[in-house]
Design goal:
Blueprint: H1 2-22, E1 30-33, E2 36-52, E3 60-75, E4 80-91, E5 96-107, E6 112-119, H2 133-136, H3 140-143, E7 149-157, E8 162-171, E9 174-183, E10 186-194, E11 197-206, E12 209-216, E13 221-229, E14 234-243, E15 252-261, E16 267-276, E17 281-290
Antiparallel strand pairs: 1-2, 2-3, 2-17, 3-4, 4-5, 5-6, 6-7, 7-8, 8-9, 9-10, 10-11, 11-12, 12-13, 13-14, 14-15, 15-16, 16-17
């Protein structure tokens, strides 16, 4: 059974690589018919080697994962459209993760939309889109953010600098209100489940800094990640959490990435190193994914 899973994922990955190559790496807005197109296509391979440093034996743990995904949109007419998203990730830990979404979109006008279905919540959008390379290498803080949920959503664009979203989603056996506001390079989102359970997330990009901070009231946990890009090739980052009730942290990562981009082939990725100060391990990482030659 395991061999069958691995063979299937290998076939799918090779197919997507060939597919992307045949399109000269145009991995966005790929037309399938006059009213149907792939807005995003993704395939990536991640490999990690973890070494614990607080023991004389220095045990080594190896990890690898493959992720594939598509976002497909079909216009029914001037006002209505379907949008479906599907991502699938398989790792050597025998875990297979599926990330689906299916939305019916009503375009009332250029500024106002109503969406219903199994939706990417307003809060979810503060973490990377599942059909992107950033989602396959998420930080701890990013993984704390909720995923897609059934619901109804209202979206309104006031200007290029101001965008707001309000929605209601079914999660943990109740309906929870979500909200999001984008102002320039800041995105604030969150939800309430009850008086004692809420979540808030803030994402921002200021010059060479990109950051994400969230607070989970139920778990009383604060988590955050900050990336600093020295230049397009080199990036430093840190990833931390704080359990407020316990007054302790169990994640404090310091990391470095060196990116690469093929000039004549549709591939990009990075080599990375990181150290967790609290859990006492060093992680070496290699990551490669399909990329658009013109855009990335």
């Amino acid at each position: 059974m395991l061999q069958n899973h691995r063979r299937n994922f290998t076939i799918i990955l090779l197919f997507l690589i060939a597919f992307g190559h045949s399109l000269h790496a145009q991995l966005e807005n790929i037309s399938l018919s006059p009213n149907t197109f792939v807005s995003k296509a993704y395939a990536g391979l991640r490999s990690d080697i973890k070494a614990l440093t607080d023991t004389s034996n220095i045990p080594i743990k190896t990890m690898a994962s493959v992720r594939i995904g598509l976002v497909v949109k079909q216009d029914l007419n001037k006002y209505f459209a379907f949008e479906a998203q599907s991502a699938l990730q398989h790792s050597n830990s025998l875990n297979t993760i599926s990330i689906p979404a299916f939305e019916l979109i009503c375009k009332v006008n250029k500024a106002f939309q109503i969406r219903a279905g199994h939706l990417v919540t307003p809060t979810t959008t503060t973490r990377p889109n599942p059909v992107t390379w950033q989602a396959q290498v998420e930080t701890y803080a990013q993984t704390r953010i909720i995923g897609s949920k059934p619901g109804v959503m209202l979206r309104y664009t006031f200007s290029t600098n101001l965008f707001v979203v309000s929605s209601l989603h079914y999660q943990n056996n109740l309906w929870a209100p979500h909200a999001r506001i984008d102002y320039k390079t800041f995105r604030l989102a969150g939800y309430f489940e009850n008086k004692s359970s809420y979540f808030v997330s803030l994402k921002s990009t200021i010059k060479k800094f990109e950051s994400i901070f969230n607070y989970n009231k139920l778990n009383e946990e604060l988590a955050g990640s900050v990336f600093y890009s020295i230049n397009p090739r080199f990036t430093f980052f840190t990833d931390v959490n704080r359990k407020m009730k316990l007054n302790q942290s169990d994640v404090w990562v310091l990391g470095f990435r060196s990116y690469f981009k093929a000039d004549k082939h549709p591939f990009a990725g990075f080599f990375g190193m990181q150290y967790d100060v609290i859990q006492k391990y060093i992680l070496g990482q290699f990551f490669i994914h399909l990329a658009d030659l013109k855009k990335e």
